[in-house]
Amino acid sequence: MARLVLSECCGLAPLRLRAGRGAIAAQSSAPAAALSASAALPPRGPAAAAAIHRDWALRVSAPTRLTSVVEEEGKGTSSPLLGEEAAAGGEFFDPGAAPPFGLAEIRAAIPKHCWVKDPWRSMSYVLRDVLVVLGLAAAAARIDSWLVWPLYWAAQGTMFWALFVLGHDCGHGSFSNNAKLNSVVGHILHSSILVPYNGWRISHRTHHQNHGHVEKDESWHPLPERLYKSLDFMTRKLRFTMPFPLLAFPLYLFKRSPGKAGSHFDPSSELFQPNEKKDIITSTASWLAMVGVLAGLTFVMGPIQMLKLYAVPYLVFVAWLDMVTYLHHHGHEDKLPWYRGKEWSYLRGGLTTLDRDYGWINNVHHDIGTHVIHHLFPQIPHYHLIEATEAAKPVLGKYYKEPKKSGPLPLHLFGVLSESLKQDHYVSDTGDVVYYQTDKKMT
Fold first, then answer.
1. Could you tell me the pTM of the whole model?
2. What region holds the Fatty acid desaturase domain (predicted)?
3. Domain regions of the chain by residue span
4. Among residues 80, 62, 59, which one has the least CA distance to residue 13?
């Protein structure tokens, strides 16, 4: 049976022929129902496949050719726009189409108590994590064995990541309704792991407000083809080759991502509004104070001991942060869209995020892998995210991607990350709905 394969999807654009691209693009201003209800695929046959192709050509920029299943499997590629249902000749589902529901419908499906913030409960998680961090450090320093240190680094780095997630909740206001409490706790938690609380809080707010937008998103956003090809080979290699992307966060804090200027420490950075300068000065001063504390401890305890107790766990924490935040927006089996222009909306951008299962670590890092509902409604406390997600699933339908169960440890996610870094390199410079494309020279 023949089926349509779109080998490289660009984006939606006004109806016109694109010179030199061999593709036709069109506006997708049709109602959501018309886009998502392409109904069922015609059963089989060349004529049916051609009809499907004509329908796609009106909405998505793609090469005008049909590829057989045999041909496709021989190449080991699949269409980023055709899901398993389409491949089996079943109901067609386009993840890039406007959903047939609104944000209010999702909100209405979530129980009211899921929105309630309990500051005592939130503080209990802070107390738990801080005690574990101090206990691990004390135990490792006392035992001081090279049989123990690697275990300590993995455990403590994971706990640093847990502290970050609680500080992240403070930044969203999901920690409590008390802004001063959120600020104090957030500064203590984030500064302790060398994160400028307000600087990161504000840039992360930008990420949530523009999730899924090619140019405006702030966290692991795609590079347009022109910008990608302007990077030197070494920069591309470092950005897309393991393990270097797992060490990107400190550099991002100082320089942001390629194509974006500014620093999380500079109150005059374009990241921030003029009325936010005092906030940035406060968080930068807190960060510098923590650097001073670490310098003093290094003088007292010695650089080797501080390297073992703090520096290596910090690097493990950075790896956790980079991996988790990347996998929230990349690496699904079917490629997911990114948006520009009128095709972008807060809802459609949020639906391109992904839930991930981290096994028993879910509880340790406060269910941050339950990410779709968190992105749509960041005010929901982390301890209600699972219940809220279960309640919203009937509304989300096929727009919700069920995470693969990881078992005790999420080791399979390292494979997902590595494979995505090999394939997801850039998106088209044009088009309002675009998908990641692969630089063959990097594979």
1. 0.80
2. 145-400
3. 2-94, 106-442
4. 59
